[in-house]
Amino acid sequence: MNLTAGARQTLDSYLDEVRRSLSGRGDLDVGDVVAGLREHVETELSLRSVDPATNEDVSDVLARIGPPDSLAGENPTGSAPAARWASRAALALVAIGIALLATALQPLGWVILAIGTLAARWILATDGSDRFPEGRVVRAVWEASAVCASMAVLFAPAVLVWGQAQIGGILVGPFTARLEIIGAARPVSYWAEVAALAGLVTGIWWLLAALFTKRQGDRLKRALGPARWMIPPGASRILLIAGALLSIVSLLGGLL
Amino acid sequence: MPSRFFANWQTQARKGVLELAVLNALREERRYGYEIAKTLQGIPGLGVVEGTVYPIMSRLEKEGLVTSSLEASPEGPARKYYRLSRDGMALLERINAAWDEMIGSVNSLRHGVE
């Protein structure tokens, strides 16, 4: 959807007002509401075949949607407002903490940084503050980073197992070859067992990822922003099948 | 003043009815947010402002009364489709029954007084 700069600013300001008016509501997902309103505006503009949509076009649609404070209404459950622990200052401190921890825990630090990046986006997506800055370069950099971070998360178990096997040896069980080697040359069979264990752990990890994607797919897509294409329809099913196959093949490979 | 009293009463009455209207809009088929908003906005007497549908949908989803799925659309952005969950369908039956009882009672009171 193409919007002029002024139109985009009008829309973003409106949605920011909606976030503020709905903040603290424990009975609904603010990010969800904001995403729905954005979808509504884009659908209306798409049906009007305006390209690019101007400030007047967007203002007209927003007038029909209603003022932000009219959407707040009453909290029917009467529950206490949810604590806004994801304030930007806290987020900055968490980001610095993760960076320091990642530096101290090399070579695992890059995995921690990748997870930290996605976690930060997740937190922002919770209250709808997940708007991306404009600019092709920024978005391209984000997409590349998101791909790297997601690959790191998906293959983290394999990296951890392999890394441990490299550094100090690993007790490879309950497979047939039970080896406990510290600092000694490792035979080929040892690495075959390590590969089987890495595959099994990764397969189980992917099964958990499939469950997570099925339950939190929408929020994950918002967190990924322009890189949401990484979660195609059926992503959880793909992860489920891949995880099951990898686990079974690795288990059989380790036993044989 | 009567006009202000009427306006207040109308606002309160519509608040209670809106969720009932949204649930009934999903009774027969799944719909996406824009579609629900336009359908309800076109019903006279409900006085629906299009944007109010979205907080309602989010609340219903959080309560487990509706489920949603995001699907690509050939025209415009991806659409979030909503459908009633099993709990939502059961609750809708109860609410509709309670609504019929309420309307019946008020109408019998009206006819009795007139």
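Residues 42 and 54 of chain B are 16 Å apart (CA to CA).
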